[in-house]
Amino acid sequence: MEVSLADFYRAGKERLQLSLLSGYGSLHQVISEPAVNRPGLALTGFLHPFAADRIQLVGMAEKAYMQSLPPEIQAERFAAMVDAGAFCFILANNAAPEASSLAIAEERGVVIMNSPLPTRELAAQAIFVLERLAAPRLSMYGTMIEVSGVGVMIEGDPGMGKSETALGLIKHGNALVSDDLTCIRKDVGNNCLFGSASDATAGYMEIRGVGIVNVRRIFGAWAIRDEKRLDLILTFRRLNEIRDTVDRLGQRRAFKDILGVKVPNIIIPVSAGRDMVNLVEVAVQTHKLAVSGYDPVKELSEHLRIRAERTPNG
Amino acid sequence: MAKITRELTLLNKYGMHVRPAGLFAKTASKYDCDVEVEKDGNVVAGKSIMALMTLEASCGSVLKVTADGDDAEECLDDIAALIGRKFDIPDEQ
Predict the structure, then answer these.
(1) Are A90 and A114 in contact (CB under 8 A)?
(2) What pLDDT, on a 0 to 100 scale, did the predictor assign at position B25?
(3) A44 is in which domain, residue-wise?
(4) Do A30 and A4 contact (CB within 8 A), yes or no?
């Protein structure tokens, strides 16, 4: 995902308590490397290499060093960083930029912001905001529910009863993440995925025949979950389409690859009279047990073998 | 089988809000063909009300509507007419 300075400023304004001091007209610029760099050595004039493509974070040490320099050298060093491609500086501890730097920044369209946060916290928060903005994303057709702590995506053709099943699950005390269309974000650091609803429709569902339903109004605040890790994908398929391939023992471990993350996938056959709410809940519990290492098939096999050994032949 | 794309401009006052999304999805669902709607690179299913609303398309937005199937032509004619009639919503003409 391409991240502009405007995206960063908007997303991080509150969390980083940013004030924009110069370069308002340059916010459309794309941050080609969404990360932060402490300019450190660059202030001494050492610019090869210098991570100019990142946001420059000016902490207490950088500020103190700049202040120790004569004004004309300050201006020279700042201009050299801008020449090298630096386009955005954030000063920690609400420090003010040197007058000469501010003048250069205004003239050349360089963004300068400051924040009351101390350097360490500012760096951590800035990285958090940048990583979220730059995270690989996609939209998936599917309704996502948190079922007893597990993030479950229900997918399948239209009319398979995804939303209706979700509604039943919510009534059983589970929480809706999104209906019909789920926004997926990859947490690159932890190699996992997070699902959420589109801001435009969060908290609403469409139930055929009933219409638009406000889930929070009907079930209360606990029935909504803003974001949840995606742990399991349940695919609803018509039984008559997959009759021959149904895994009757539930031993097959299948995965779906989404943004390079392997998510466990179970196919659930749908046919008239099957209680999908119940099936989903049991599938989730079975998944939880499987993740913890429990295998009911192995246990039952063992049980049958022992019984067979005990029973005398003939 | 035919796959046809048409660019349609929303003309009603408030764009793709709940009622237009409902009418769009209802019209698209009358046909067997697959319908996809694209705006600014976001592609969503044309038969899903919730998905259509996530486009947040306002008046004047151009939607790329793609229909794929035997009745694609009729389906797009029907959708284009609906958008042209500003979804028959009296307050938004």
Answers:
(1) yes
(2) 92
(3) 5-134
(4) yes
Low-confidence residues in chain A, pLDDT < 50: none
Rounded to 10 degrees, what is the CA torsion of A79, A80, A85, A88? -50
CA distance A13 to A20: 9
d(CA A35, CA A30): 12
Contacts of B86 by beta carbon, 8 Å cutoff, 6+ apart: B11, B12, B13, B92, B93
Does residue B38 carry a pLDDT above 90? yes
Q: Please give the residue of chain B at the shortest CA–CA distance from A182.
A: B51
Catalytic hit among B10, B17, B28, B35? B17
In a shared domain, residues A74 and A217: no
Tell whether A223 is covered by a domain.
yes
Q: How many CB atoms lie within 10 A of CB A296?
A: 13
A154 close to A230: Cβ distance less than 8 angstroms = no
Same structural domain for residues A277 and A141? yes
The per-residue pLDDT for A261 is 95
CB contact under 8 A, B56 and A200: yes
Please answer whether residues A276 and A156 qualify as being in contact, where contact means their C-beta atoms are separated by less than 8 angstroms.
no
Residue B64 scores a pLDDT above 80: yes
For residue B24, pLDDT over 70 is answered with yes
Domain shared by A20 and A122, yes or no: yes
Alpha-helix runs per DSSP H in chain A:
5-16, 60-68, 71-83, 99-108, 119-134, 162-171, 215-219, 239-242, 276-291, 296-310
Whether residue A177 is found in the same domain as residue A259: yes
Contacts of B37 in chain A (CB under 8 A): none
Tell me whether residues A204 and B45 touch, CB distance under 8 A. Answer: no
Residue B54 distance to chain A (closest CA, Å): 5
Inter-residue contact B51 to A180 (CB < 8 Å): yes
Phi-psi region of A23 (alpha: psi -120 to 50; beta: other; left: phi over 0): left
Q: Is position A310 within any domain?
A: no
pLDDT at res. A242: 78
Q: What integer pLDDT is reported at residue A1 of this predicted model?
A: 72
- Look at residue A311 and tell me if it is in a domain: no
pTM: 0.76
Q: DSSP assignment, residue A27? A: T
CB contact under 8 A, B45 and A141: yes
- The per-residue pLDDT of chain B, averaged, comes to 91
